[in-house]
Amino acid sequence: MSFEYEVVIGLETHVELLTESKIFCACPNRFGEAPNTNVCPVCLGLPGSLPIFNENVLKLALEAALALNCTIAHYSKFDRKNYFYPDLPKAYQISQHDRPLARDGYLELVKDGKLIRKVRIERLHLEEDAGKLMHDEAGERSYVDYNRSGVPLIEIVTAPDIHSPEEAHLFLESLRKTLLYTGVSDCKMEEGSLRCDANISLRPAGTKSLGRKVEIKNMNSFRAVQRGLEYEVGRQKEILKAGGTVALETRRWSEEDGATIEMRSKEEDEHDYLFFPEPDLPPLILSEEFIGAVKSKLPELPVDRYFRLMEEQGISPYQAEIITSSREMADFFEETLKIFPQPQTVSNWLLGDVSGLLNSMGKEIDEVAFTPQHFAALLELLAAGTLSGRLAKDVLEESFQSGRHPKEIVQKKGLVQISDEQELLRIVDEVIEDTPNAVNDYFAGNKKAVGFLMGQVMKRTKGQANPQLATKLLQKKLKQLEK
Amino acid sequence: MKLYEMTACEAAAALRKKEVTSQELTESVLERISGVEGIIKGFITILESEKILQEAKKIDKLLAEGKKLSPLAGIPMALKDNICTQGIPTTYASKMLENYRPSYDAHVTEKLKEAGTVLMGKANMDEFAMGSSTERSFFHPTRNPWDISRVPGGSSGGSAALVAADEIFFSLGSDTGGSVRQPASMCGVVGLKPTYGLVSRYGLAALAPSLDQVGPLSKDVRDCAMVLDIIAGHDPRDSTSAKSKDNYVDYLGREVKGFKIGFPKEFFGEGLEEPVKKVIMEALAKSEQLGAEVDEISLPKTPYVLPCYHLVVSAEISSALARYDGVRYGFRAREGDTLSELYRQTRSRGFGSEVKKRIILGTHVLRTEHYDDYYWKALKVRTLIKQDFEKVFRDYDLIATPTSPTTAFKLGAKNDDPQTVHSRDNYTRAANLTGIPAISIPCGFVEGLPVGLQIMGRPFEEGRMLQFCYALEDMLGVKGYKPEISVEGGH
To answer: Which residues contact B138 (CB under 8 A, 6 or more apart)?
Structure first.
């Protein structure tokens, strides 16, 4: 008997927004500072403190929602989600319950030049982050850092439209890319600015109803999400194959064990968060004009840019994927093309030497002094034969380090390729005269001696000799002498 | 006449005329406090005399230098103990926060400091402002200056008793369902609950945030207007804060002829003690003598006010008080090995019984399976009650009712019967549910105990409300009667 199962996954993603200050107070929204330094009566939930909504949060959340093709609610409101935990200083989280900011969006997943899945976004809502618990090594004491308390979050909930762990990984990559394009978040999973929980169930292939789902938490990297889900697929398959029932529960991914571990059952003690409207904050009422204004300022989104660049510039899906991996990279590509309209050359250099240098420096394209103008000038020098490939690489590196214009580098260092026949012939003659041993070796049948002689030519020209021309001239001269 | 017997306005005028100094006013008040506070017990915390006098001298110096200060600069006052005062204990009259010292000043504290008033101490109250007798204070009950065997009302009982006993010139209280007006009525002082949003709630520990307002308690209507002028106005730290304020003192002394006053029949029925009713009706008759038009009206949704109020308040309380969990500040039970045991022990032992009862009720009504039947329904009823009032205010400027159906009751007398306690406060709840301003002014006596008249007005029309009350106060002629505080008590 064979079992075929379909995997059904829905993701809940929390994304911290890149605002200057927190969502309900003026404290700085910054990661990595000394504990409990970015706090005030409001984010500490001291008696008498009141929240004030930071309008910049709304703008960023709207951008995210619009980039995810959501319908924006003209009326939404804040609610209190009541529960006790030491990281939650008011013992309630200000969130949005039944009237979220946005609903019914989608995110398109692409692979190898094709649209492979449209994942529906059920809702996107605003909420505040909680503080962070820390435990000492002996496990005796716990500490709370409230710097994160009140950091603005959006929660993005997908429909159960994801059908494999790889797809979940791809979804997160695409979500990250989209949010980075809009600039609403830095989406760093390792710093917790993007966090993801997953609901996963299996059902017999071809059926429609959903199986019994398990929630997986504590997956702290994109890889962990994929691994956690892969493990869970295997675990649930085994249970089902053995004729068992998957328990409704929350499980925790353990990186060390490479397994998910039961945290709590959902069957016995489903927590009631006692939601009710937040009386301290007015509802959010948004006009069509306001939403339209935010929408009109959205950048072109990665999926659209990916397809456009493939079509307009004729680059491959692989090239398009790398080039559109960040908005800055794609901008760099297109800016360069405006001056030097040869997409293949630009693309090859961008994915080759430029990316190589960026990787070795550990920087992004917008973090170096090398500009599209520099890049185009370099490629022009190469195309004109002024620079050899070898020299072009040197100039590129130099320009990367110093931020100087390639033409300036070439001029200052006298790096122009020598393609003048008379000049090269003079040097070839010199070399032949100065190294009779090598010339004799050549006549004695050691053809390798040509290499040595070429090396001498390059040495005397500081590498600037046009290599093809110099080789041709040297061989011609030697043949003449041989006769 | 002793200095402490003056109204805030009289004292301020004497200060301006350099007949007295703030130091002398403060010393006079300190003398009064040392004389009667042992009986009244209106304070939870009294600041050190030296520090208070230092503050008074500072104001004297500024006044001598000709500094432009507010009209109430140099006037001693007190704040209810749920209003944050930086570095000064703010206990909420609870064991939970017995030793809590806020790190910041409430908006109203800041305003009164800026105005140069002199803070004498923090006034007693029912624990977390839940109660109507001030007997639920964790520390001690406060006695009514008119009869020390009786309660001062509550929850701002300390604030009211201190003003009535001339221990201070004015005070601030908080009013979620009548907590300023009811004790004002029982202590024979003026107490105002402003329109929701007129006074910032920043730094007032929340009881029910959609109902809470800070308001003044004072010796007369003019003082009330003067204090309101200082504490009202926009505060960007409170999202529910109104954008603008009026100049309230300007309204005083204007004609009130032609004012239309409605008295709702639902507030004059069962439960209202006959002698109290008589005093109120006399006050209404005097209103007519002022040229006001007084008619009987109807507020048909009145029977739903109390249940609606209790659902909203208990739900909001359960959430507002959840933060007192022993983790960061305040009382922490030392027993228990687990986190949930820490919470359980701390909250079981840190809160008094009334507080716990309301938290349990609030948690119950907010449960998902009950939400639609209780809280959601209460919000809808709240809208209907609001409409009830809006309709009346289309034709009437003001609504007049008793503040309380009875005069002050005996200490310990009715505590065992929560039903009585709750229904007793029924006249004041509607103003909180609807957000409208409401004031209680003394309008007469029954067996030597003060009776308060409640006047409600349209949102943000405190000016006209005070205008009317000022004229009526004059006509009533009860102003200036002082209780004789004696250990024997009486009545």
So the answer is: B91, B93, B94, B95, B98, B127, B352
What single-letter amino acid sits at B489?
A: G
Is B299 within 8 Å of B263 (Cβ atoms)? no
- At position A317, the amino acid (one-letter code) is P
| Domains identified in chain A and CATH numbers | 5-293 (no CATH), 300-413 (no CATH), 421-482 (1.10.10.410)
CA distance A172 to A166: 10
B298 is catalytic: no
Among chain B, residues having any CB pair with chain A shorter than 8 Å are: 82-84, 90, 92, 97, 100, 102-104, 106, 201-206, 208-210, 236-240, 315-316, 318-319, 322-323, 325, 327-329, 339-340, 343, 363, 366-368, 371, 375, 379
Q: Pick from A52, A279, A280: which is nearest to B236 by CB?
A: A52
Kindly give the interhelix angle for B339-350 and B353-366, rounded to the nearest 10 degrees: 130
Instruction: Report the number of secondary-structure helices (H) and strands (E) in chain A.
Output: 16, 16
Q: What is the residue whose two structure tokens read 């009869």?
A: B147
CB-nearest to B237 from A52, A144, A272 is A52
Reading the block at residue B62, the tokens are 């500024």
Residues of B in contact with A44 (CB under 8 A): 328
Residues of A in contact with B106 (CB under 8 A): 48
Mean pLDDT by 10 residues, chain A (483 residues): 81 96 96 94 97 96 97 97 96 97 96 93 97 87 94 97 95 95 92 93 87 90 93 92 89 91 76 94 96 94 94 92 92 92 91 89 88 88 78 84 84 73 85 86 83 84 79 85 76
Say if the Cβ atoms of A89 and B205 lie within 8 Å. no
Query: A250 has which bridge partners?
Result: A215, A264
Please give the interface size between A and B, counted as residue pairs whose CB atoms are below 8 Å apart.
95
CA angle A131, A264, A175 (to 5 degrees): 55
A185 alpha carbon, distance to own chain's centre: 11
Residues in chain B with CB shorter than 8 Å from the CB of A274 are 318-319, 363, 366-368
Active site annotation includes B132: no
d(CA A185, CA A302): 15
3-state secondary structure A154-204: EEEEECCCECCHHHHHHHHHHHHHHHHHHCCCCCCHHHCCEEEEEEEEEEE
B190 belongs to a structural domain: yes
Separation between Cα atoms, residue A48 and residue B103, nearest integer Å: 11
Q: Report residue A88 as tokens.
A: 């939650």
Whether residue B53 lies inside any domain: the answer is no
Tell whether the torsion through CA atoms of A55, A56, A57 and A63 is positive or negative. positive
Domain total of chain B: 1
CATH of the domain at B194: 3.90.1300.10
Please, how many CA atoms are within 13 Å of residue A283, restricted to the half-sphere of its CB? 15
Provide the angle, in degrees to the nearest 10, between the axes of the packed helices B462-476 and B221-231.
160
